[in-house]
Write a structure and sequence with these properties.
Protein name (chains A, B): Serine racemase
Largest interface: A-B, 19 and 19 residues
Strand content of chain A: 15-25%
Cofactor (chains A, B): pyridoxal 5'-phosphate; Mg(2+); Mn(2+); Ca(2+)
CATH class of the largest domain in chain A: Alpha Beta
Number of strands of chain A: 9
Mean pLDDT of chain A: 90
Shape of chain A: globular
CATH architecture of the largest domain in chain A: 3-Layer(aba) Sandwich
Oligomer: homodimer
Helix content of chain A: 40-55%
Number of helices of chain A: 12
Largest sheet of chain A: 6 strands, mixed
Number of domains of chain A: 2
Keywords (chains A, B): Lyase, Magnesium, Pyridoxal phosphate
Strand order of the largest sheet of chain A: 1-2-9-6-7-8
Radius of gyration of chain A: 18 Å
Structural class of chain A: alpha/beta
EC number (chains A, B): 4.3.1.17, 4.3.1.18, 5.1.1.18
Pfam family, one (chains A, B): PALP
Order of helices and strands of chain A: HEHEHEHEHEHHEHEHEHHHE
Amino acid sequence: MSNNNVITFSDVLDAKEKISPYVHECPVVTSSTLDKMVGRKVFFKAESFQKTGSFKARGALNAVLSLVAKSPEVHGVVTHSSGNHGQALAWASNMVGLDCTVVVTNNTPKSKCEAIKAYGADLVFCEPTYADRIKICNKISEERSIPYISSSDDYDIMAGQGTIAVEFLNQVPDLDAVIVPVSGGGMAAGIATAAKAIKPAIKGERLWPNPPRFLDSIADGIRVQQLGELTWPIILELVEKEVFSVKDADIVKAMKFVFERMKLVIEPTSAAGVAAVMSERMASMDPGLKNVGVILCGGNVDINHLPWY
Amino acid sequence: MSNNNVITFSDVLDAKEKISPYVHECPVVTSSTLDKMVGRKVFFKAESFQKTGSFKARGALNAVLSLVAKSPEVHGVVTHSSGNHGQALAWASNMVGLDCTVVVTNNTPKSKCEAIKAYGADLVFCEPTYADRIKICNKISEERSIPYISSSDDYDIMAGQGTIAVEFLNQVPDLDAVIVPVSGGGMAAGIATAAKAIKPAIKGERLWPNPPRFLDSIADGIRVQQLGELTWPIILELVEKEVFSVKDADIVKAMKFVFERMKLVIEPTSAAGVAAVMSERMASMDPGLKNVGVILCGGNVDINHLPWY
């Protein structure tokens, strides 16, 4: 590992040992129809089947278990989240007996809000701006003397998300590239760390939705378009300099394809990865990238408000 | 095997050998939330991931392969179908180079009709009555000199569907009962034949939706509420005398549960099995039925017209 990395492959393997008894090894799914369409073999890691409905369970559980080990006196945690990290932290906190408070913007899908409450966490709404989310979260952290657990800019979170890559490369050793939806960069940093350690030649492709500023995409899981201070140097070093931008219309089209043809319920953020692999930009890329992995990061969509209705 | 049975376990094993290279061994999925709700362990055989989106691919392929072996001069086949058998027969015929004509009622979901055409079959619409479907199908069979392949009342079809049970009991050897959606009875007859041979103590539970006459349920795959002449004696002997009737409202509720919590796209007919396992009737049954299997028979729902919109 390079000295510039601040999490190592060994951190990811430690996380895997800690969280494996409680999280699913999610299946890899394929579609021969899609493979024909794009002229490559595409492997989807279906984290939509993960505990709490997204990959975030991995990082949150690793963070909470590490926290309790380091600070046995801790009584609760707080976070702000677009929904999935909130559910995951609520679930993980509940498992280890910590109180949990989650700050969400008031436009967060109802299904995600209800799930957070169902795991026993306190839900606090804020204005739909990133700044307000942070402000309220910091206030609660101070008032209640509970640590803030970032959804991505945290080494334990990154190491937890990196376990996806360990499983994925065990399930499909021949992967040439992995497409990762990016918001804060926790998953991308973790996956890049693990994947480059296991298979140095692998490519990682970041993915950002259009428009280039945040909070205006149906992909509610990746509305925050800003890499974290801790994730940025890792991603800068380890991830390929290839960024896909996908439009909302392409996300909806990809989401419908996965519902109709693959029979999987996924959220728009997962569909962003599918849209990337179906894009013209992907079509123009090196044909040597024969086996492409895509992370279906979550399935927490409000089925009463699907984007094509 | 009893002498009353007109397909044997050996027919099912022969079918398995023939079709296995071309069909999926579909995964078994579980939900800890549902297990807690119903107080049993429930195992779902996700035939929604099968080729053509339903278990019907198994029987159709076995029927077509057997037909070509017996009658090499055959040039085409015809069937009537509520949609899934039509897709399956179109797909299987296309694979072996036969023409295929499918008669469907004019209220068949658009997604199923489009899929039938996409596999290269001719689609013929009829009035939404069972009688008209048969009449038109017979007429085409005579005019074009092509055999009619029943969706269920056919020994090769039954043997093909029976392969589900061979796989399921291999995946979950401890199953105490299997709940099977029934319409014509092809799947129930095949599964009962195989399951009783592998595990004589296993219970099979039939499932019919309310209301008791046909063509008035959202479960379009099981609108025809009449067992076939060939399936009836097999089911009478091998299947438990336990029939669940489920209401459309329960089907919709079960379908939403599977979309929201299990992240699977299923069609209403699959949800009928889920509704049965969630029903009060099931709750009142022998607690010794600890491990209950449910066949998620298909995933071919028109996602532009989901029943809760």
